[in-house]
């Protein structure tokens, strides 16, 4: 029994030792071989880094895209300004100096000095650099009492881009045709290429001219400045339907009044021309009647019968 018990105890001890060794080996392998467990953590970390980098790049691309989507668009600025000044003529001179100093120009300037039947006034068409419109308007408002101010803008970015694209395409075509013209040797090819080149060049010049005009309107705002003397009320734009009817009626009466004045000016000339026309018509009629009378007399002389033959002459003929 003691031998059996000792043998059983030895077997149990051996099993316990082997079990402990296996646990130790597994723990050691888990620590000494990180390649089995570490790749997932490393992959997660790398994925997180890649995600951060991708997010950063997306944010940069989004910000860059925002800059591209909303650049400075091409716009035409236009407006009007009405001012009451003590001396409209002097104010017009000052306005010209303000605009010129800002880098602009005056396209039109009309001055109406004071007369017996009217007060002094002036009107100007100002071309102001678009980026300096607000600053120039602030200076212009100091010329007197501001009656009305109206400023607006029209987006022409699409037209500008369209013209630029068409100009680029035509310029490429012209360059290619010029090269073909230099390389052509056949007379028929030369004539055909030269004709097409002339046509394309004309189209290109036209588009370049349109682009320059549009660019000028974009670069320089157009402001209509009206200067009135004190006591003159600036004409207001109609705001309602009845205001429009009244304005149209007044315009009609003004047109009719101007028409009557024009007819009064033309009346002496019309009478003089009528007298000349009557005299010329009478002379022509007299000439026509004289010609007809002469033709009738010639026709009557031609149709008259000749003299009848005598008997003696007839007898001699029978003999």
Describe this structure in words.
The chain is α+β, with helices and mostly antiparallel strands and 319 residues long. Among the domains are: 75-156, Alpha-Beta Plaits (2-Layer Sandwich); 158-217. It has eight helices and five strands. The protein has helices spanning 2-32, 38-69, 88-101, 133-140, 157-183, 187-219, 241-303, 311-318, and strands at residues 75-84, 105-112, 121-129, 145-155, 220-228. The chain has a five-stranded mixed beta sheet. Strand 2 and strand 3 (121-129) form a beta hairpin. The chain is flat, with a radius of gyration of 51 Å. The N and C termini lie far apart (213 Å). The model is unreliable at 1-70 and 313-319 (pLDDT under 50). The chain crosses the membrane at residues 266-288. Residues 75-279 form the DUF4349 domain. Residues 1-24 form the signal peptide. Keywords: Membrane, Signal, Transmembrane, Transmembrane helix. Residues 297-311 have a biased composition (Low complexity).
CATH architecture of the domain at 75-156: 2-Layer Sandwich
Poorly predicted tracts of residues: 1-70, 313-319
Can you count the beta strands?
Answer: 5
User: Ends: how far apart?
Assistant: 213 Å
Rg from alpha-carbon coordinates: 51 Å
What is the helix tally?
Answer: 8
Helix and strand sequence? HHEHEEHEHHEHH
CATH level 3 topology of the domain at 75-156: Alpha-Beta Plaits
The structural class is alpha+beta
Categorize the overall geometry: flat
CATH class term of the domain at 75-156: Alpha Beta
């Amino acid at each position: 029994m003691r031998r059996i018990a000792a043998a059983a105890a030895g077997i149990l001890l051996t099993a316990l030792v082997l079990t402990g060794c296996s646990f130790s080996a597994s723990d050691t392998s888990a620590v000494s071989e990180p390649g089995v467990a570490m790749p997932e953590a490393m992959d997660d970390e790398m994925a997180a880094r890649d995600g951060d980098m991708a997010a950063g790049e997306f944010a940069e691309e989004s910000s860059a895209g925002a800059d591209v989507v909303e650049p400075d668009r091409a716009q035409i600025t236009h407006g009007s300004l009405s001012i009451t000044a003590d001396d409209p003529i002097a104010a017009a001179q000052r306005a010209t100096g303000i605009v010129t100093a800002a880098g602009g120009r005056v396209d039109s300037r009309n001055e109406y000095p004071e007369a017996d039947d009217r007060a002094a006034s002036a009107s100007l068409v100002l071309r102001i650099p678009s980026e300096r419109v607000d600053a120039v308007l602030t200076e212009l408002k100091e010329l007197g009492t501001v009656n009305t101010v109206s400023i607006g803008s029209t987006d022409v970015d699409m037209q500008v881009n369209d013209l630029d694209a068409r100009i680029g395409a035509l310029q490429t075509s012209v360059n290619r045709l010029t090269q073909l013209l230099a390389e052509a040797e056949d007379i028929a090819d030369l004539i055909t290429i030269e004709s097409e080149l002339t046509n394309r060049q004309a189209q290109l010049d036209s588009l370049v001219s349109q682009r320059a005009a549009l660019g000028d309107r974009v670069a320089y705002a157009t402001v209509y400045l009206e200067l009135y003397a004190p006591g003159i009320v600036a004409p207001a734009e109609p705001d309602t339907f009845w205001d429009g009817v009244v304005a149209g009626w007044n315009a009609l009466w003004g047109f009719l009044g101007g028409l009557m004045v024009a007819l009064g000016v033309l009346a002496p000339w019309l009478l003089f021309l009528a007298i000349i026309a009557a005299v010329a018509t009478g002379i022509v009629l007299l000439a026509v009647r004289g010609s007809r009378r002469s033709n009738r007399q010639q026709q009557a002389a031609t149709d008259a019968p000749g003299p009848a033959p005598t008997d003696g002459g007839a007898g001699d003929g029978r003999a």
